[in-house]
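For the sake of clarity, the format in which proteins appear in this thesis is described at this point. The fold follows as a row of integers, each naming the local backbone shape at the matching residue. One such record is shown here in full, so that the layout can be seen directly:
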Amino acid sequence: MRKFFAFVASVACAFSAMATNYQGELTVTVNDETAVQGTEITVTNTDGLYDLSIKNFKLVSGELVLPVGNIELKGCQGTDAYGITTIKFNNSVTIAPGDDPNVATEDWMGPMLGEVPIEMTAKLNDQVLSVNIDINLALLEQIIKVSFVGNTPASLEGDLTKDGVVNVSDVTSLVNKVLE
């Protein structure tokens, strides 16, 4: 009976904070100049509130790479309709330095910007994420528009441990579940 309650508790914890990574194309337009690059956005759902994050974001334009930092939009309200969740955020955030070992802490430009006003709308389901962000940096006289469309990587059938490969660990996990 103890094993059953432990299993129920672990399932409840797993569902209370679920994170999904979406990989796709990010388009950044700054004062009518556009740069497109691949990136990953992580969405975490904790008790009905959503956090969106881009870790170690770097703005890439041709040969120029500007390390920006970790962008996190926390506590976003979500509404569900027809299998789509719409998330909205309208607040200012401070961009944290990234943790990429190839970039010195002082080279991340996001923290130097102070409070950044962000207006964001995102739509998502289990497989697809679409994000639109408007940033008006009046101090720098820049209007920044960001859009992202991405999807979750296809999972492998039988990948019980969710490590991206079907291997002995998956078989061991399955045997342990049967023996419980």
Summary: The first helix runs from residue 2 to 16.
